Amino acid sequence: MMKDKMLITIQSTVGKEHNFKSREDSESSALGIPYDYGSVMHYSKTSFNIGSKATIITRIPQFSDVIGQRMGFSANDLAKLSLLYNCTKSSTFVESCNFEQENICGMIGGPGEAKWEQRSSVSGGPPNDFTNMGQCKGKGSFMHFSSSSTHSGDRALLESRWLYPKPGVQCLHFFLHNTAAADDVLNIWVREHDKDNPSGKMKLFKSILGGGMSSWELHAINLEVTQKSRVVFEGISGNMTSKGGFSLDDVNMASTKCPQHIWHIHNMTKLLTSTKPGTKSYSPRFLSAAGYSFQVGVYLNGRSDRPGYVGVYVHLTSGPNDHRLQWPCPWQQVTMILMDQQSDIRQQMNNHRMVTTDPEKLSSEGELYWDNPSKVGSKVTASDGTTYYRGPGFGTSSFLSHRRIKSRNFIKGDDAYFLFSMEGLLELSAVTYVERASL
C-alpha cells in the first residue's frame, strides 16, 4: 500500500482509529497518479490526535508542513478528477502564456512601425521576468515594447493565437512592468471574427498610460467575447522621452469574472516578521458595484491570541453613496483572496474567505453589525488627512498560517496580492471569479 511507504502513523496518539484504516489495491486506486502530499484530501500531521501530539510523520520530512492543506485542489487532485469523470478539457480555462518558449504561445506580431520583442531583461527595467524572478539561470522571458527607441506615433501589435472562449464574461489578467513615458499608451483590444467580419472587428477594453511604478503589477480586465477571437496588445509611443517601455508576462485568460479590486502589498516578507501580533493593517477603501464602501483589515502576524497566522476582516466604511443605500447592508458577499502567483492559472492554489452581510446580525453591544458605518462605526483619519467612519470587522483569525504562505507562490519578488469582490447574492448566480480557473 503506497500510503504506508510514504507515511508513518503513530497509533498511540490516534484518537479515532477508524479514520486510519488502510485499503488494499483491490479496493482503491491512485489511478496512476503519484502520491500527493499536497492533496486537499490529505490529513494534516495532527489530524484526529489525542492532545497536541502528531498522528502522522511523513517519511520525507520536508512534507511535514505540506500535508493537510485546505487551500484548494492540487494539480494531482485535478488530474484524478479528470480521470474519474472523463474530463477532456477545462470548462473555464482559455489561455496561459509565460513567454518561456520561442514560439511565444503562438502569438503573432501585427502591422506597425515597431514590434514587440521577447526579452530576458531591459536596461531601463525590468531586470528580469516575472515568472522566474531571475532565479533560474538561462531562463526567464517576457514581451517588451520599447518606447525609448521609437518615434512619436509608432505602434506595435502583439496578437494572441485564436481563442474560443465560452460566450459571456472572461477575465484577462497579466503582469505589466511599466517604464514607459507618461504619454505612451498600452491598449488592450479584442479582435472578434464572424461571418459578417471575416477580417475581424476590433473592440477596445482598456488603455493604460505610461509612467507607472517601475515594478511588476497585476492587471485584471473583464472581457465579453462571443466569437472566436484574438486578444491584441497595442503599444503606442508618445512625444515624451521614455527610459523603457511596456513589458508583459504571465498572461492568463479564463471564462470567469475578474476580481473587482486588487491590493498590492510590497515588502511582504519583512512585514510578516516585523509586524507585532495584534497589529492590523488596512487596505485602501473600495466601492462595490452596488455602491457600498468597504475595506479589509489584515493581521499580518496574527492577532495577539493567534500569532503566526494571517487574519482577515472586512469592514464597511462610510462612502459617497450611503444616503441612497439600504441599511443594514443586506446579503452582500465579500470574497477575500490571497493570490498564489503561479504563472499558469491552472496551477494556482489561491486562499480565499467569504463573508456575507446578514442584515439582522447583532454586535456584542446589541447594535446591527452591518448598519451604516456613520451610525455604528468609529471615526478614522486616513493618511491624507481625510476622515471617515469604519464599521466593525468580521472575518477569521486563521486565514492562512505563515508556514502555508511559504509553501506556495503567495509571496513573489517579496510582493503579495489580495483580490477582493463584493456582490449581492443574486448577482452570484452568474459566473464569478473562482479560486481555480481549471475546474
TrEMBL record:
Domain MAM residues, every copy: 95-260
Q: Which GO terms describe its cellular component?
A: membrane
GO molecular function ontology, one term from the record: metalloendopeptidase activity
Q: Where is the MATH domain?
A: 258-422
The family database entries (InterPro entries) matched by this protein are listed as: ConA-like_dom_sf, MAM_dom, MATH/TRAF_dom, MetalloPept_cat_dom_sf, Peptidase_M12A, TRAF-like
Give the E.C. number(s): 3.4.24.-
Biological process terms in GO annotation = proteolysis
Q: Which residues form the Peptidase M12A domain?
A: 1-88
Q: Which SUPFAM superfamilies match?
A: Concanavalin A-like lectins/glucanases, Metalloproteases ('zincins'), catalytic domain, TRAF domain-like
Q: Which cofactor does this sequence's record say it needs?
A: Zn(2+)
Annotated keywords: Hydrolase, Metal-binding, Metalloprotease, Protease, Zinc
What does this protein's record comment on cofactor binding? Binds 1 zinc ion per subunit.
Q: What is this protein called?
A: Metalloendopeptidase
User: Which species?
Assistant: Gouania willdenowi (Blunt-snouted clingfish)
